[in-house]
Structures are given as structure tokens and as C-alpha cells.
Design brief:
It is built from eleven helices and 14 strands. The chain is an alpha+beta fold. Strands 4-5-10-6-7 form a five-stranded antiparallel sheet. A four-stranded antiparallel sheet has the order 11-12-13-14. Strands 1-3-2 form a three-stranded parallel sheet, covered by helices on one side. Strand 4 and strand 5 form a beta hairpin. Helix 10 packs antiparallel against helix 11. The longest helix has 20 residues. Bound molecules: flavin-adenine dinucleotide.
């Protein structure tokens, strides 16, 4: 009697708990699936390799606040858009409402947006102005990274084999202030950004005491604008727009020419979008 052949490795699994997902991830080579709105279009005609479907993992979706604000990696854009959140997060909620159309917002997740690491990911600039950190878990333990250190370049992150992104954490001190998000595309909806800007400002007695501004789609990874932030801090609210126009908006940016826009257009657009985002946040 010949030995029975070993069972082939599964090409699909849908774990229901985080420990089960981590055990599976540790044992095989998987493509992680959340909403699939980046994974499937990016795969072309056929998705190759084994798929680990995260949609059944208990506790991976949802928003909780206990000092810090924690957004589960599998939280959809629709949930973020419709949750009751402090004004500092209005920038993220405004972005959530313009990620694709309604179907994409229902299926697509914040974790997928970050792990896909597109320079045009609308979730990134709002999370940069919120000083967000990502929580990464593997069988070896948990680690936290600043979002700016997690995103290494187009389609490149600091995620290690065996690791899952489980949550985005916004520290309590970044939950202050008012915020806005402004996006420019070739049309008003269902469009990849030519440039987008997030701004979060803290105002005390009619003066700006805290400023965080970030631009996406104008560099390999979205960037905070330290020169603009420095120009805004201490400014009386009515002079904020003037301060933006006097600052070197392009200092941290390196836009490229591509099918959506030229570098020169992106640069000019970024200046105007920063002005609009600051004015909108203050309004
Ligand atoms: C028609 C259309 C329009 C779109 N418009 C926009 C837009 O306007 N703005 C925008 O920013 N994006 C847009 N997108 C892209 C996409 O919808 C978003 O980036 C979305 O947030 C991706 O989330 P997802 O759950 O679908 O990710 P998936 O496609 O499931 O996954 C994306 C990547 O992340 C990995 N991944 C997912 N979850 C985890 C996790 N927890 N841990 C580790 N790795 C993980 C996957 O393996 C994959 O590599 C659009 C997509 C489509 C199809």
C-alpha cells in the first residue's frame, strides 16, 4: 500500500479569532484579505496564492476611546464616516466619505488603506496630523510604530512576516483641536487624489497654539509640513491664510509627473489646498 499523500496546504482560510489568525499566518505564506478593494484590483485577472480572509476575526473592527482613541484595522470607511467622533477626527471622517464610492466605503478598511501603502491613500494625511500609531501583532508579541515610520515608500511598509496590523491608535493629546480634509481629483467623486491635504489646528483665545498639516500624493509617502506648521503657530486666526501663503509649502514635497497631473500642477495645487484646509479647519 503506498503512503497516502499529505494534504495540500489550504488555499483559503477564514479565522474567527486573532490567535487563530496569527497561528495560520505563522505557518504559511498568505495574502491577507480585508475588504479586498485594493487586493483584487491589484491582482489582475486572477488572485495568486493562498488567501487569509480577515473579515471573520473577532475584535478587529470597531472604534473605542479610553484616553487614546483606537480604531480596529478592519473598521470600514463607512463606519468611520458615520461614527460620533471629536472634531479633531473630522479630517479622517471627511476622507472616509471620499474614499471611492459607497460600496468601496462599506467594504474597504482603514487597515487595508495603510498596508497597501499607496502614495494616494486618502487615509494617510489625516492620520499623520493625528500623530497616529499602528499596532502590529505577531506570535512573538505586540509592537507600536508611528505611522510615519510604518510607511516606508510606495507599496512598502514595516510590516514583518507573521505580523498583522490590528489597530490604529490616536494618542489622547492629538484628540484636541478642529480639523479638515481637502481632496483634489480630476472630478469630484470616485477619483484617486491628485493631491490632498489634512489640517488639525488648536486655537486658544483667537491664536493658533497647535498646528499639524500633511499633504498626500505629492511625494512617495504623504508628508507633514513643518515649515507651514511653524508659520501657523502663534498666528492670530484671521491671519492664518496669509501665513500659509508666506510659508514654503513645497519644502517637504517631491511631486512627480504622472497620468493624473504634472509635478508643477501638483505643487501649485498643494499650496492652494493647504490654504483651503487651514481656513476650513478654523471655520
Ligand atoms: C473603485 C475604487 C475606488 C477607490 N478609491 C479610493 C480613494 O478614493 N481613496 C483611497 O485612498 N483609496 C481608494 N481605493 C482603494 C481602497 O478602497 C482603499 O485603499 C481601502 O481602504 C483598502 O482597504 P481594503 O480593506 O479593501 O484592503 P484590501 O484590499 O483587503 O487589502 C489591501 C492590502 O492590505 C493588506 N492588509 C489588509 N488588512 C491588513 C491587516 N490588518 N494587516 C496586514 N495587512 C493587511 C492586504 O494584504 C493587501 O495587501 C479605491 C478602490 C476601488 C476599487
Amino acid at each position: 500500500m503506498p503512503e497516502p499523500l499529505p494534504a495540500p496546504p489550504p488555499d483559503f482560510a477564514r479565522p474567527t479569532s486573532l490567535p487563530e489568525a496569527l497561528r495560520l499566518l505563522d505557518r504559511g505564506s498568505w495574502r491577507l484579505l480585508a475588504g479586498g478593494t485594493d487586493l483584487y484590483p491589484g491582482a489582475g485577472a486572477q488572485l495568486q496564492g493562498a488567501v487569509l480572509d480577515l473579515t471573520g476575526v473577532d475584535g478587529l473592527a470597531g472604534i473605542t476611546m479610553d484616553g487614546d482613541l483606537r480604531i480596529g484595522a478592519a473598521t470600514s470607511w463607512a463606519t468611520i464616516a458615520t461614527s460620533s467622533l471629536p472634531p479633531a477626527l473630522h479630517t479622517l471622517q471627511a476622507a472616509a466619505r471620499v474614499v471611492g464610492g459607497r460600496q468601496v466605503q462599506v467594504a474597504g478598511t482603514i487597515g487595508g488603506n495603510l498596508c497597501n501603502a499607496s502614495p494616494a491613500a486618502d487615509g494617510v494625511p489625516p492620520l499623520l496630523v493625528l500623530d497616529a500609531e499602528v499596532e502590529l501583532v505577531s506570535l512573538s508579541g505586540t509592537r507600536r510604530l508611528r505611522l510615519a515610520d510604518f510607511l516606508l515608500g510606495p507599496r512598502r511598509t514595516a510590516l514583518q512576516p507573521g505580523e498583522l496590523l490590528v489597530a490604529v491608535v490616536i494618542p489622547e493629546q492629538a484628540l484636541q483641536g478642529c480639523s479638515a480634509f481637502v481632496k483634489l481629483g480630476a472630478r469630484s467623486h470616485l477619483v484617486i487624489s491628485i493631491a490632498m491635504v489634512a489640517a488639525r489646528l488648536v486655537v486658544d483665545q483667537d491664536r493658533i497654539t497647535g498646528a499639524a498639516v500633511a499633504v498626500g500624493s505629492c511625494s512617495a509617502v504623504a508628508q507633514r509640513l513643518p515649515a507651514v506648521e511653524a508659520a501657523l503657530i502663534g498666528a492670530p486666526v484671521p491671519s492664518a491664510a496669509e501665513r500659509v501663503l508666506g510659508a514654503d509649502v513645497g519644502a517637504a514635497l517631491s511631486p512627480i509627473d504622472d497620468v493624473r497631473a504634472t509635478a508643477a500642477y501638483r505643487h501649485a495645487a498643494a499650496v492652494e489646498l493647504v490654504r483651503r484646509a487651514v481656513v476650513e479647519a478654523l471655520a
